[in-house]
Specification:
mainly alpha; Ferritin; 10 helices
Length: 320
């Protein structure tokens, strides 16, 4: 899931935040963890006039999805999450059907390539670590959009569904900023390296089916992070990059809850449809995601994230 990206040079890029519109502002901390980092080195994004005034949850989701500037996407996400927690963001009663899924907003500078075209680099050099951090930051930015799209696309669900995915979007926005701070410390910014679009492509494939979305995005693609992140933390600490390792510790801890939300709502969908969840999960893996299964699996984290022992035994068998 985390793949090294192609570097763009050893020197800091010209205009470190060239595509990110920011203005001076205070440091922000969500209060969800003991790590509190300044947003954009003591700056925060300027929300365009009128964009933050919506009290319609679906409109808020649409605005966050469409925003191309990563810092503004983060600012909108955190603003609307705060409104939702305060009870000021509501799902409309008679909402129109969702628009067909499309690519979410991304900075024009970002180059998307096929995963096989991403050069693999080790973590031993500062440039390799910057490419690695960029890859993880790209995953977290995608995860913001994945959460908002679930809210926007799937209708007629309990309010607790919205609460779970607004909270996830908020967490992912904070993860992106923590990683961007580490990227800046390595002399780079988001979009300095190419990235792939695998997460969003799975989102597109499951746009018609909330059950499949909950099974495959949180419980397959995002759950992969639970498996590989501990090893990355160990490697970073061995290289002396404790600051980045500390950020990954926060992300790993909080991603367990995100995958658990996927497990919870996958089973909710299965119960509503009258299907057996383990059998259906096996079918969906075969239909959509056979190539995504790679061991070894982080059994402890996956159990905490809502997998049961039978499912995990089946995953190990399928992964070979």
């Amino acid at each position: 899931m985390q793949q090294a990206q192609s570097p763009s040079g050893n020197q800091p890029s010209s205009g470190a935040a060239r595509h990110l519109a920011v203005r001076p502002g205070p440091a922000q901390c969500s209060g969800h963890s003991d790590v509190c980092e300044p947003v954009a080195r003591g700056q925060h994004a300027l929300i365009p006039e009128g964009e933050g005034k919506s009290t319609d949850l679906l409109d808020a989701a649409r605005l966050c999805l469409a925003e191309a500037d990563p810092l503004q996407k983060v600012a909108l996400t955190q603003h609307f999450a705060a409104l939702f927690r305060a009870g000021q963001l509501k799902q409309p009663v008679d909402a129109p059907d969702p628009e067909p899924i499309r690519m979410p907003g991304r900075p024009a500078e970002l180059v998307l390539v096929h995963p096989r075209d991403l050069p693999r680099r080790g973590l031993g050099s500062p440039e390799g670590r910057a490419a690695f951090i960029h890859a993880i930051a790209h995953i977290e930015l995608n995860a913001i959009d994945l959460a908002w799209d679930a809210i926007y696309r799937f209708r007629g669900l309990p309010s607790s569904f919205h609460a779970d995915w607004v909270s996830c979007a908020d967490d992912e926005s904070r993860h992106f900023m923590l990683l961007r701070e580490r990227l800046l410390a390595h002399g780079h910014d988001y979009a300095d390296f190419p990235a792939h679009n695998g997460l969003w492509e799975m989102c597109e494939k499951t746009a018609h089916d909330g059950l499949a979305r909950m099974a495959l995005v949180p419980r397959v693609l995002e759950a992969r992070g639970l498996d590989v992140t501990p090893g990355m933390i160990t490697k970073l600490r061995a290289l002396g990059d404790d600051a980045t390792a500390d950020v990954l510790e926060v992300i790993l801890r909080e991603e367990v809850a995100h995958v658990a939300a996927g497990s919870r709502w996958y089973r909710w969908y299965c119960e509503r449809a009258g299907v057996e969840p383990r059998a259906r999960f096996r079918e969906l893996l075969h239909e959509y995601a056979g190539g995504y299964l790679h061991g070894p699996f982080n059994i402890e984290a996956r159990l905490l994230a809502g997998f049961d022992e039978d499912e995990l035994a089946n995953l190990v068998e399928q992964a070979g």
